[in-house]
Every structure is written in C-alpha cells, then in structure tokens.
Design goal:
Layout: E1 13-20, H1 28-41, E2 46-50, H2 58-61, E3 72-73, E4 77-78, E5 81-83, E6 86-90, H3 105-117, E7 124-130, H4 137-145, E8 148-155, H5 159-174, E9 179-184, E10 189-190, E11 197-198, H6 205-212, E12 217-220, H7 225-232, H8 237-240, H9 245-264
Parallel strand pairs: 1-7, 1-8, 2-6, 2-7, 8-9, 9-12
Antiparallel strand pairs: 3-4, 5-6, 10-11
Helix pairs in contact: 1-9, 3-4
Length: about 280
Amino acid sequence: MTDAPVQDGLQDVKHIIAVASGKGGVGKSTTSVNLALALVAKGAKVGVVDADIYGPSLPLMLGVPEGTRPDVIDGKLFVPVEAQGLKTMSMGYLVTEQTPMVWRGPMASGALLQILTQTNWGELDYLVVDMPPGTGDIQLTLAQQAQLAGAVIVTTPQDIALLDARKAIEMFHKVKIPVLGIVENMAVHHCSQCGHEEHIFGEGGGQKVALEYQTKVLGALPLSLAIREQTDAGTPTVVAEPQGLAATTYGKIAGEIIDLLAEKGSPSGPELIIE
C-alpha cells in the first residue's frame, strides 16, 4: 500500500531527518535538540518538530517561555516559534502541562501531520523530527506521509535498549528509509572525583548493531550530569558549552549527517510495505 506524501508547508525543506528510538529514556530528545543546534552552528537553516504528541518537551529544552503560542497565517498555517536559531513546532505550544493528550493512535497521528505539514517552515536545509519512542501508528504515519531523507537511531549500550534499537531500524528498513547511523548515549561514565572511566551500561553494543545493519556509529556521548542539567535549564549543551567535549561530539555527528545526505541526494519518497 502506498500513499502520496503530504507536503504543504514542507515544500521548501530540503532534508527531513527523523531522530528515533525503540524505547524511551535513552536521550532521544536531547540528541534531537543538540543535533539541530550543531547543524545551525555549521551555518544551516534548521527546524525542529516535537513529534511526541503525548509528552512534548521541546519548549522546556529550548527555554521557550511558558504560555508561548504560535501565530497563525490566514487561519491555515502555523508560524514556527523561533528559539536559539531554530524554527520549532510542538504540541507543547498548543496545550498546557495540565492538559493530557488522551487520544487513540489515529488522532495522535492526525495531530502530528497537522503540526508537520501545516506549519510555514519556509526555506530550511534540515528539519529534525524528534520522534516519540516505539514503532507504532505515529512512526508509521510519519514514514509514510513525509519524504524523510533518513533516520538517526538513538540508543544506550544496555542490551534491552539495543534490542529496541534493532526494532526501530527494522521499521525504517520496511518503509525504505535509510538509517544514517546510530548515536550511543550514556556510553561511559567519567568519575568527577578521580577521573576513572566505567562503562556502566555495557560496551560496544552500538558498534555491534551498526555492523549488523551495515550502518555506522555517528558518535558516543558520556553519561553526564551536565548534559541533563543544561537541557533541563533550557540551554542545551551545544549552546551552554560550545567548545566542550559533548558539544564537539554533537558537531561531529552533524558533520557526518551533512556528508551522508549530500551523498544520498534528495529523497524520492518512501514506500510503505505491509506484511
């Protein structure tokens, strides 16, 4: 079964990148925001979509004041909220923290498509989509309806996270979307007192999965209190410590993605295969 991709506000976006994970709690949203900011630091025009309809976090992570709402053009198109050099859109701008999204899958998928395609993104080099965790309706809808240039899979080294990362990779393979690579979070812990390094969640798992699926590890981030604190404070690592080790790693990841997409060229549109 195939459906024509929906474009609308996406017509001037060159590359749409999905940042995905098979499970929650692996740092996917942190990766999405820092990747987007690293692309901006390289001179690109970048937007970010918070596709987690049930638990939007983008406004908090970028320090957008509570209560911020997007403007609307002619009652049809949202104007993206600009924050730290990014054009952003999130369900978090449309509801309050006290408004839970009690929706079934098709309703959530429809809301995502509206946010994605009825936002006036303008000219963008990259649109980073922070996907919700899992491989359900929302993920398949996005893969089917938007012309994704590729996907970045976020995981941690522990076995259960790697198992779910494989599921995410398999999903993108089924819909013919290239997996650009893997980002491994919480790869190693550096003791702040003695400098000792310890692989708390295991070692080499991301590389093993990358070899298994003929892709690559784009970068590995440490288990770091600073990364969490900076993001929670609305100043992600790439902005808070642009010369730091973590920001340098995000910059490397961004550079790898730029090169990979330049090699692949423009996406031709996905084909949804149901077995």
